[in-house]
Amino acid sequence: MRKELAAQAEERKTFRAVFSRFGKKTNYKGYSEDTLLLTQVVDVALKQVVSDHVWFTFSKAFEDLALKPGDVIEFNARIKAYQKGYVNKRLGYHKKTEDYKLSHPTQLKKLVD
User: Fold this and answer.
1) SS in 3 state form for the chain?
2) Quick check: 53 pLDDT over 90?
3) 81 close to 9: Cβ distance less than 8 angstroms
């Protein structure tokens, strides 16, 4: 589904999504980092679903929204390419592919129904 974002790489656009839950990940320095999951990500201008989900690091901007599951938020983000998959050079295993993500969320606001 994110392949549709390929034509818009590096553009900053407005998106709308539903907050689902919080999570955790280990960052590149080995420390635990809080994250949040947004589902049903829609490009506001095109009124089209661009991804079924996206993960973001739980920043101060998200914290200020006091999110609860089911809350709808709107935000601006940049569309960026990234490499995903697994590589083991010793075994000759190379399964990396290019995918697209939303990066640098700004102008976050919670929408009231």
Assistant:
1) CHHHHHHHCCCEEEEEEEEEEEEEEECCCCCEEEEEEEEEEEECCCCEEEEEEEEEECCHHHHCCCCCCCCEEEEEEEEEEEEEEEEECCCCEEEEEEEEEEEEEEEEEEECC
2) yes
3) yes
Question: What pTM was computed for the model?
Answer: 0.85
> What are the domain boundaries of the chain?
2-108
CA distances from 49 to 13, 35, 66, 83 (A): 13, 22, 25, 22
Q: Domain 2-108's class? A: mainly beta
Residue 93 has pLDDT above 80, yes or no: yes
Q: Which residues pair with 72 in a beta bridge?
A: 18, 111
